[in-house]
Design brief:
homodimer; Rossmann fold; 2 domains; 14 helices; amino-acid biosynthesis (chains A, B); metal-binding (chains A, B); NAD binding (chains A, B)
């Protein structure tokens, strides 16, 4: 891993994948086909892309209940505990509508209203993503969204993984369709005979899903389009190089475009971590991916002091930040830009990715400068309330007219 | 004005103006020129488009102070009162960071951090928009944004209107540049020798400004791109047809694409308002604009009862909603989608546009289904905090591993 001194302009930004011309055209065509032919288009496209011949996309009660037999009880318990933790954290984000009154009879306020309906995209394919279901569904439920629809592509056998069905079931999600790709996004945005359109679509997906979300944005709201994952570790000389190397590599393993960065005040630690990364890389099953990620987007910055190190972190504005310094909590107040801050040696990223409670859908690619983790606010909106009394209007009418004339 | 019964699918959506190919190419070229040549490009483009030959764009202290001589004292007082009202309302939106602790040593939390820097675009040209300055700058200040930059195109004389300078001065905005158009947006997004880049750009503008904001989105954050203005009046038989017609027309006057809609339970009121609109249209200075707006985007819906009427309002999801019924406040809880709700006969739209306190930057074109008025949250972002203790990790480590393996 490269060890470099801090330069004026550090950045881990990568180009956002906007797909190829061919991909964009394919997505446009799919959306148009779904708008024109509804369910029939969904059936054809699901057969074409997922290899599944499905007459009724909707998951039945029997499928949901049957999935429990395939799941280990201890895993179900772990899922339940994660759900409790995530729900508890998001409950604390909930906000109340408020009104304020004045003696002249004026009432002003802010009404918080949940969205009517939300569609959650859950990726399928080689792996199953129960955590993605929890992280998208729970904030919507806490916000009070009445209709939550889940879509996820089935395997060629027409089935969803048991872990996906059980997680949905534990969350009491009842409207689930076995569809995926751009066609699922189109169905959620425009509706078909059997699927009613929603107001917002969230959740991760491949490039076709991302392009479809971009294309329907405006018709419906969408969450962010996530870039490759990032970790920045901020550490001083007392941190453990082996742990740091392991955390950097577990991010690098995800994706060749993932970024793993160490910012440290210790030249010695920098050198130890560089060696550890080499050592730990060798036996990894996903060695090739991790190697490419470390080579292209991995770097160790050695800063003169903690002030400079923190400045580097704020410039990077990472998705995940781990603080491994002597008094890590004391530094949190100086971190201006980060999606999630993992404090101290017992808080590695998986703690937050699957279990602790905060959301794992985080701003990437430097957008933590102005974006937030997915949260309850994303599933509500505000309306202003303005009620003037006769007296308030009489007192203030001439001022309001004067200000209005200023802009005529 | 057309009087129609309620049909299944009511909507006031209009096509969003995405500009012509020529306009989009012009904007791309301007942005590139500013990125390549910085201040020199800004000078050339300002001369070309605004007709102003400006060496130093930055407004001086002398200009700010000098503007007061041109402003009526009572108008300054009205501005100050509006600023107090707007600041008071937005202070109530402010949120605190929070932490929660568990007995096993776990600390979880949500840190709220203001954005570092924001650029506010203030349109110039024929009119001055002090209210736009207040509505964009105040929420950013309340959020705690340290650097607030204002840009506004000067007249051919190289000057900004006195009302703009005085409003900025009253708000203590000190970094103001006399630049406008796509070149100002490019300067804010990418920076030049004399203007440092910002993290977010807000504020309304013409089609070139809107296209430039779209083009730089991703590099920086932007607020919404506003569509034409809308008003929906919800009224029963006791409402005053003259007032309603006046409010509908004052919206229609803004823009040929503006939309003015009455939803009423009273056929009689519907007919009265239709007549009143005709009568009041005739003498209007902007008659042609108002007439086109009413013709193309004006309609009176007659609903069977209040339930159906409210359903229509929620389907329309209007930017501005006026409720003129017998017990208007009692209906607020049934309004799910509206940017701002004006309650009762003394709360017409200008009350909220200029003075009362709530923000006048509101979601248009049906986006009130999922968007909010501009508010303090728009100028902050959240970071999650996760701190596990040794004990917490020991207790939960195996569950976290099991959940992680589920997704491998």
């Amino acid at each position: 891993m490269r060890i470099v001194p801090v330069t004026a302009d550090v950045s881990i930004k990568r180009d956002i994948d906007t797909g190829t011309e061919t991909q964009r055209e394919a997505v446009e065509a799919i959306i148009q086909q779904v708008r024109d032919q509804g369910d029939q288009a969904i059936r054809e496209l699901t057969k074409k892309f997922d290899g599944a011949d499905i007459e009724n996309f909707r998951v039945t009660k029997q499928e949901l209940e049957g999935a429990y037999a395939e799941m280990d009880q201890s895993l179900i318990e772990a899922l339940r505990e994660a759900i409790t933790n995530i729900r508890d954290f998001h409950e604390r984000q909930k906000r109340q509508s408020w009104l304020t009154t004045k003696e002249d009879g004026t009432i002003l306020g802010q009404k918080i209203t949940p969205l009517d309906s939300v569609g959650v995209y859950v990726p399928g394919g080689k792996a199953a993503y129960p955590s993605s279901i929890m992280m998208n569904v729970i904030p919507a439920q806490v916000a009070g969204v009445e209709r939550i629809v889940m879509v996820s592509p089935a395997g060629a056998d027409g089935k969803l993984p048991a872990s996906v069905l059980v997680t949905a079931s534990e969350l009491n999600v009842k409207e689930i369709y076995k569809i995926g790709g751009a066609q699922a996004v189109a169905a959620l945005a425009y509706g078909t005979e059997s699927i009613q359109a929603v107001d917002k679509i969230t959740g991760p997906g491949n490039i076709y899903v991302a392009l479809a979300k971009r294309a329907v944005f405006g018709k419906v709201d969408i969450d962010m389009i996530a870039g490759p994952s990032e970790i920045v570790v901020l550490a001083d000389e007392q941190a453990d190089a082996r742990f740091i190397a392991a955390d950097l590599l577990s991010q690098a393993e995800h994706d060749e475009q993932a970024s793993a960065v160490l910012v440290t005040t210790s030249q010695k630690l920098a050198e130890q971590v560089a060696v550890e990364v080499e050592t730990q890389l060798a036996p990894l099953p996903k060695k090739a991916i991790a190697e490419a990620s470390i080579r292209d987007y991995g770097v160790i910055y050695v800063a003169r002091d903690l002030v400079e190190a923190i400045d580097v972190v704020n410039q990077l504005a990472p998705e995940h930040l781990e603080i491994l310094t002597e008094e890590p909590m004391n530094l949190v107040g100086r971190i201006r830009h980060a999606g999630a801050i993992f404090v101290g040696p017992y808080s590695s990223e998986p703690v937050g990715d699957y279990f602790a409670g905060p959301n794992h859908v985080l701003p990437t690619n430097g957008t933590a400068r102005f974006s937030s983790p997915l949260n309850v606010d994303d599933f509500t909106k505000k309306s202003s309330i303005i009620s003037y009394s006769k007296q308030a209007l009489q007192t203030n009418g001439h001022k309001i007219s004067a200000l209005a004339r200023l802009e005529a």
